[in-house]
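User: I'm new to structure prediction. If I give you an amino acid sequence, what do you actually give back? Let's try with this one:
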Amino acid sequence: MSRSHSIRAALAALALVVPLGASAQQRPAAPQLQEAGAVNFAIFLRGAPIGTEQVALTRSATGWTIVSSGRLSAPIDTVARRLQVRYTPDWKPLEFTLDGNVRGVAQTIHTVIEGTTAKSDITVAGQTTQKTDTIDPAALLVLSNSFFGPYEAVAARLRTAPAGTDIPVYLEPQSSITIAIGETSAEQIQTAGRLVVAHRTRITLVLPGARLNAELWTDDTGRMIRFSVPSQSIEVVREDIAAVSSRSVTISRPNDTQINIPSNGFTLAGTLSRPAQADGARLPAVVLVGGSGPTDRDSLAFGIPIFGQIAGALADAGYIVVRYDKRGIGQSGGRSEAASLADYADDVRAAVTLLADRKDVDPKRIVVIGHSEGGTVALMAAAKDKHIAAVGLIATPGITGADIVLAQQKRILDRSTMTPEEKLAKVEEQKRIHDAVMSGKGLELLPPNVRRSVDTPEFQSILLSDPAKLVPQVRQPLLIVQGELDTQVEPQNADMLEGLARKRKNAPAVDVLKVPGINHLLVPATTGESIEYADLKDKHVSETVTKAIVTWLNKTLSTTR
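Assistant: Good question. You get back a string of structure tokens that encode the predicted 3D arrangement of the chain. For your 561 residues, that looks like this:
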């Protein structure tokens, strides 16, 4: 189950808490290159950072030169002090040189290409051997393992090699293979500095007796930005692409712009979507509020950019829409580990303030719409901010946070093979955890891994959240949308929210929509269980949901012009 789109249950009595491991380790630094324009790559094995490589690509009157240096930590324990490959201007191979060591033993390789002949001198611990191979005169020179800078030549060849092309390659200093070029797809990656237009090409390394599927990503200049060999669990990623501040742009519109939202001592990064056609009048606006966990601006879950699709539908209907990375996530500043729901509500209000100050936004027609836990946060923001004209609640709990956690736990237990006694014990253990978190007493008695998971401001505020106390404070019109196949926030929650909303004094308008066949991710489903999320065929938010939101917005805001 994706934590990004559920009330973060932290079911410590059921699930393992993964501690910080290799992914938090310091990568060994590569020896520094003197060449200008060198870029850094991070090298990962099975998701753990194991090394770095600096790569420079230069062109002169005599041709192309690739230079790299790198270091891989134990157990590989390899250093490339200098790796250099030279080509003619049309990428015909000339020379390969490697100076480094493996597990402390000095090794060098020097290969000279003359026509179809590759002559290599290989020195290991002072002992030199010679090797001669016949190769294709157009072969590219790459290493069989360890360092990947030479794949810049493959990246350059991809610019003119269509799918179906076979590229000859000489694996230094072993044998000749081919790289079969597959289909290429375009993707966009937003880094801290710019938007990178990436080309993701599927390739196959055709080895003697084996085929390795891989992917080589290049930028709009043809430079390598990522090399991936899934079967070997190898990932080589340029550091600006690997940075936590970078994100794949899974969905975008021509009128999308990047925005920065000043919050409490830091900045939230987001996307503002505008209608394709605008007549200069001030437009109504919507702020989308994501659910629990590390939610990015698109609310991407299992290949579904939930907020990206909703933002597009609302912008098409004439609304300015803001969505943003939660604090501490993606390109946003701040620290998520120290944030409570009230802090996230302050971030919502910061987005509302930014919109209200824009000349193209009508400050009297700003609406906040939250998904899952984001609905609770939206209610908290609206209770304090009268500049919010209306609130949309999508798959939002109508019971306390503590009760929603127990309800989610019960659903998991009902599908398990535990005995009734074991299930009861798990429930009682979860209740003890809740009591300790909400009271602050007895936390020291919890297992360390459980305490790390639950002793946070956000989880405490989730448990203490209570719609019965919150909804009466919200004086704005409400929309309640609920998928009837939602198993994370079950449909009866919409009934509870509606009941609370209609009991408000001089109750503002309340609209309710229950959508058959729709799960928590707002897409068509069979069972609605989280176990089927990865296999969902339809990755599009239901039009029934987006059209209902547009209809409600048009009706609700028509009276506030």
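You can read the tokens as a compact description of the fold. Here is one thing that stands out. Residues 435 and 441 are 8 Å apart (CA to CA).
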